[in-house]
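Hi L.,

As promised, Acireductone dioxygenase:
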Amino acid sequence: MALEAWFMDDSDGDKRLPHHRSPPEFVSSDHLSDVGVLYWKLDPSDYENDEELRKIREDRGYNYMDLVDLCPEKVDDYEQKLKNFWTEHIHGDEEIRYFLEGSGYFDIRDKDDRWIRMWVKPGDLIVLPAGIYHRFTLDTSNYIKLMRLFIGEPVWASFNRPQEDHPARKQYTRSLTEKAGAALAAH
Ligand SMILES: CSCCC(=O)C(=O)O
Ligand SMILES: [Fe+2]
């Protein structure tokens, strides 16, 4: 099963609702990989002993991991955190999230600056490239539990848009341009 993703409408209504366009416009896994998103579907039921997850972590050097249970009782500054997640931002490193319970919306900007909404659910492992604009919200289930992965000492710093001069942003836009150039040359 592929990740469910779609282009968002332009309405300002409740962010926890799906925000499909009318009619809905789904986004293919090719389009997601074009903007540099990596995706795996794993079995979350026994994540502590999952051989597939172990292999991915080893291959990509994700030696750091912790768990986040996103509910008011377990997270300090819950409302503030959700607010920060919802503010469009980038990071200087990959953002790697493995979703274990509940669900939510991970929104990313594509190369034409359109919002793509990815509906993340248990078993979805998603890697966002450094420098991609994104944001996150819970959906109407109001709950999510996830694993954060990182290479080495984690850096959670986020940089709110605009960030056109940030090295990670420049590198990212350059990589998109190169990809587009290579695609043209292949035709
Ligand atoms: C809660 S999943 C990811 C939210 C986010 O973009 C972040 O932590 O930087
Ligand atoms: Fe982020």
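The longest strand covers residues 95-102.

Thanks again for sending the construct details.

K.
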